[in-house]
Every structure is written in structure tokens, then in C-alpha cells.
Amino acid sequence: MTLVETLADLTTRTPSGGGFWLGSNYLLVRYCSDIWEWEYRGSSYYDLEDLAEEILRRNGEGSRLVGYFTQSVSDQRREYRA
Q1: Bigger pLDDT: 43 or 71?
Q2: What is the rounded (10 degree) CA torsion for 67, 69, 70, 72?
């Protein structure tokens, strides 16, 4: 599962106005008039790919975060605390 797929999965399981943890990163999710919005470290994102790129950029592509996406789905759900 890629980072974008993981973000999409966690987003669909999070109510509008709620949030989830991705490693040590907290993301706030809002659903506004047919579009999802994510808030991450004070910035708003409207595209999952842009959000995923920013998460990887801020955490470093060689970080432990990247390794999460090679684990099994059941392992990921435990790690994300969603």
C-alpha cells in the first residue's frame, strides 16, 4: 500500500472535523462541498499526492515513515492508531 493509498484509507475512516496520526504526524480532515481538505502542520492540502509529497519531504524519504508502507495492512492499522 502506497502513502497515497494509506492516506485515502485513513481519510475515509475519519469523520469530517476529526483527525488521525500518521507516525508522529497529526492530520486534520475536513469534507467541504464535495472536496476533502487535509490540514498538516498549519497548511491546507486539497490533493492527496501533494500531501503525501509534503509528508515525505518533511520526514525525509529515508525515514522510518517510508518503511510503514511496505508493512502489511494489519501492521499499518496498529501503527497509525486510526
Answers
A1: 43
A2: 120
